[in-house]
Write a structure and sequence with these properties.
Structural class: mainly alpha
CATH superfamily: Neurolysin, domain 3
CATH topology: Neurolysin, domain 3
Order of helices and strands: HHHHHHHHHH
Number of helices: 10
Largest sheet: none
Number of strands: 0
Shape: flat
């Protein structure tokens, strides 16, 4: 519902680009939602409640490790995009090893260059930290609007019109402030 096509959809502040996707992860890990479609592939029988709850709870098993990994990715992105000091002969692999040692609990594996396949480092261009901001905003939206009732049409319509419809036509801070009322 934006006036100009170049500010529609995910053409918005990087801080908000991942909010809809991350918000959907909350729905996908809520037993009330998953129970509506999770069926045995042959019999069509619904999953037992205990298995369903266990499946959904598993998403949170390594939450701290995942957060540490995201902080590492963010720090690596920042480090790779700063202006190199003159005379520096560091490779991206050297920088990755250094940042991983500082911010991540798992040791760096030598003779690898996985950062070359991590396209977000290039695509986000020193803005990967925004993924963590999107996670925070999505969690806030979930808790305030959908946690009690993920099927609330009122909450869904409010999100659609009060958040999604703006795309990048409204400053991120203003959109989050007005939508969440804080």
């Amino acid at each position: 519902k934006t006036r100009y096509q170049h500010v529609t959809g995910t053409r918005c502040a990087t801080d908000l680009a991942e909010v809809p996707s991350i918000l959907m992860e909350f729905f996908a890990s809520d037993p009330r939602v998953v129970s509506k479609f999770a069926r045995h592939y042959k019999t069509g029988k619904a999953l037992p409640v205990s298995r369903l709850e266990s499946l959904c709870a598993a998403k949170h098993t390594f939450a701290a490790a995942e957060m540490q990994q995201q902080v590492f990715y963010s720090a690596l992105d920042q480090k790779l995009h700063i202006h190199p000091s003159s005379g520096s002969n560091s490779t991206t692999t050297d920088v990755t090893a250094e940042v991983q040692q500082q911010y991540y609990g798992l040791p760096f594996v030598h003779n690898t260059a996985w950062q070359h396949r991590f396209s977000h480092i290039v695509g986000y261009g020193a803005k990967y930290y925004s993924y963590l901001l999107s996670r925070g905003v999505a969690a806030w939206i979930w808790q305030q609007n959908f946690q009690e009732d993920p099927f609330s049409r009122e909450a869904g319509e409010s999100f659609r019109h009060g958040f999604l419809a703006h795309g990048g036509s409204k400053p991120a801070r203003d959109m989050v402030t007005s939508f969440l009322g804080k």
